[in-house]
Fold Phosphoenolpyruvate-protein phosphotransferase.
Amino acid sequence: RKSRLQKFKDLPTETRDKHRISLLANVGSLSDISHVSDVGADGIGLFRTEFMLMNASHMPSEDVQYGLYCDALQLLDGKTFTIRTFDIGADKELPCLSLPQEVNPALGFRGARYSLAHTDLFKSQLKAVLRAANHGCIRLMFPMINQVEELDELFNMIEECKTELIEDERGFGELSYGIVVETPSAVLNLASMLPFLDFISIGTNDLTQYSMAADRTNPDLTKIYPSLSPSILKLIKITIDTAKEASIPVSLCGELASNPLVAPILIGMGIDELSVNLNSLLELKSTICNKELATYIKCSEEALLIQRIDELNHYVSHCY
Ligand code: PEP
Ligand code: MG
């Protein structure tokens, strides 16, 4: 089976009738990044930068972060590189930061909220990314965004970083900007944020958790609310349609993308990119190549009409 998949490594990810999508990798370290071409990925759709803090005894300096992003650019050799700013919060164990206990960490100071409240830490990351962008294209995306005021704050902070870099005579490059769409608010407020963005990426892991109000770490709840449900499909559909209206490309980086039964439906709904774990990538590519786009569109239209979780999951297991 492995050798059957190997032939897809150097092939583009496209449907049988050559509708091309970008198939990217979710990574958490430089070592992951060194395997991106081994699995035939078009680049990185999600670099979870907080992973580099998980084993660190102290916060990496701006220079250390800059070195790491530059190393990643070199390994990627022109392929897409999407960095997600630190998604820190009390839901993650980080020995180098003492995070205050929160009763409800998933609803607390995490993602961009945490970053905006801890400017020294955040500015070290933003400056490192801006400096690295002098050596290659970088897409930067912000986690846990609900509304446009948060973007105002983020872009003000980026301007501040640029001013300080100019004062210090440090070179930097321009970035592409995106958000992770992972709260119901972000879906509903998307149109007001798109004018400030170059791309978006749907984070279905959290979008499921927050739309179902179901803790993603509680296995009993994930049994009741599996990753594929009518409500998540509807939220994805609204997001894609809203972004298409503004001609903004849409990626999807949650676990749902790596399910070979679901990915074709996402393509049928108009998704431009999927970002998945390294070990699901080749198998997924081979599945996507199997059928024509019209088949995937038809399946997505039918799937969107299904109202029951079990019926929907059954439907995707035999619709292609
Ligand atoms: C998501 O929420 O779907 C996502 C991709 O990010 P994470 O799993 O890191 O929260
Ligand atoms: Mg998330």
